[in-house]
Automatic annotation (TrEMBL):
Any one GO molecular function term: ATP binding
Pfam families from the UniProt entry: SYY_C-terminal, tRNA-synt_1b
Keyword annotations of the record: Aminoacyl-tRNA synthetase, ATP-binding, Cytoplasm, Ligase, Nucleotide-binding, Protein biosynthesis, RNA-binding
Binding-site residues for L-tyrosine, renumbered to this chain: 35, 168, 172
Matches recorded under CDD domains: S4, TyrRS_core
Biological process according to GO: tyrosyl-tRNA aminoacylation
Species of origin: Arachnia propionica
Gene name of the encoded protein: tyrS
Protein name (Swiss-Prot/TrEMBL): Tyrosine--tRNA ligase
């Protein structure tokens, strides 16, 4: 077994492959040029894209050369969804998203050395292509009966699917062939939900160019109850810090359930087998210490947001529960903290009892007053002794926020309403 594939299998990162033995031989004979694609369907890459970016990094660190494709063309079409037709975004919107996503991808692979990464845009080879050329050169290699048999298409046939979405597989397959022809790319990887599109590209290369290409796909990550990992009640986990704050990002991984934390460490961390095995044993022996969760949250936040940002959010989490100075936190970190604890908007001045109530840490004003009288009420980590206290501007952190706490663990907050 090729050492890289052996590691990917151990990490649970291979759900499908065209021919694992042949792929191993191809990698051994390398270096191999490979690609992974990202369609610009939003302003930011998300949690699911991170899995592919880290697979690309692992391949590059093993000596292979990555090509990161941002779909300026396919992003205008959209891969078929099971739930219904995708809304088409304006071309100028897609173009702006392409640039944002292009910028995001640069943080995860190296653009230096003999196997430096390259970023490509499939609009470069589709923009000037005529419909007739597309049908003659690409469409003739796709039997309609096989396209109709694809799971997502078959499920959409009764409700209806446009020819636009039906043809998406041709565009993605052409991407693989173009990279094969232009750069000698012979391997594509992606998520298991893209397996049909990926293998169609392998087949196109075989049919049109009599070439040999390889493919592999990662599994869908799930929680212990089978639901999709990477989703919260608030929605998607984004890589853009303006959409998902580094604090919320770190907290999401910190709250990983024991049953799955080692699986996620293998995927998102570059720790060795020995280190992960030790963390697995620690989780079994001393689960209350949550050492694996802390390692996971720290590692993935380091990768996505940087060490300095991770240190700031760890300090913020400690400060929130009285183990640090809240006033030393930056406004950006405080903003992420207050969003995560769902700070209520208020206008100053406001009685402390009212602030405790609207922040959700007590269920009545009477309970707030009792917390003060019993010595369990805190404002910005300072114990409060006056139940009639009124919050005003002198209590604000970063000119907007107040952190409230009842006892050791019940935390909430308020923020001055935007004018």
């Amino acid at each position: 077994m090729n050492a890289l594939l052996d590691d990917l299998l151990w990490r649970g990162l291979i759900a499908h492959s065209t021919d694992l033995e042949a792929l191993g031989q191809h990698l051994d004979a390398g270096p191999v040029k490979f690609y992974v694609g990202f369609d610009p369907t939003a302003t930011s890459l998300h949690f699911g894209n991170l899995v592919q970016l880290l697979v690309a990094r692992r391949l590059q660190e093993a000596g292979h050369q990555p090509f990161l494709l941002v779909g300026g063309a396919t992003g205008q079409i959209g891969d078929p969804k099971e739930s219904g037709e995708r809304a088409m975004n304006p071309k100028e919107v897609v173009a702006a998203w392409v640039e944002r996503i292009r910028s995001q991808t640069t943080r995860f692979v190296s653009f230096e050395g003999d196997n430096a990464a390259t970023i490509v845009n499939n609009l470069d080879w589709t923009a000037e292509m005529s419909v007739v050329d597309f049908l003659r050169d690409v469409g003739k290699h796709f039997p309609v009966n096989r396209m109709l048999a694809r799971d997502v298409v078959a499920r959409r046939l009764e409700a209806g699917i446009s020819y636009t979405e039906f043809s998406y597989v041709l565009l993605q397959s052409m991407d693989f062939r173009e990279l094969y022809r232009r750069h000698g790319v012979t391997l594509q990887h992606g998520g298991s939900d893209q397996w049909g599109n990926i293998t169609a590209g392998v087949e196109l290369i075989r049919r049109s160019d009599q070439g040999k290409a390889h493919a592999m796909a990662t599994p869908l990550l799930t929680k212990a109850d089978g639901t999709k990992f990477g989703k919260t009640e608030a929605g998607t986990i984004w890589l853009d810090p303006e959409l998902t704050s580094p604090y919320a990002f770190h907290q999401y991984f910190l709250n990983t359930e024991d049953a799955k934390v080692i699986d996620y460490l293998k995927v998102f961390s570059f720790r060795s087998r020995e280190e992960i095995d030790a963390l697995e044993k620690a989780t079994e022996d001393e689960p209350h210490k949550r050492l694996a969760q802390k390692a996971l949250a720290d590692d993935v936040t380091d990768i996505v947001h940087g060490v300095a940002e991770r240190e700031a959010v760890v300090a913020a989490a400690g400060s929130l529960f009285g183990r640090g100075e809240l006033r030393e936190l930056s406004p950006v970190v405080l903003q992420g903290v207050m969003k995560e604890i769902k700070a209520a908007e208020v206008r100053l001045p406001i009685p402390l009892a009212d602030a405790f109530l609207v922040s959700g840490i007590v269920d009545s004003k009477a309970a707030a007053r009792r917390a003060v009288l019993e010595g369990g009420a805190y404002v910005n980590n300072e114990k409060v002794g006056d139940p009639d206290m009124v919050l005003d501007r002198e209590h604000l952190l970063a000119d907007r926020y107040v952190v409230l706490r009842r006892g050791r663990r019940t935390v909430g907050g308020v923020q001055v309403a935007s004018s």
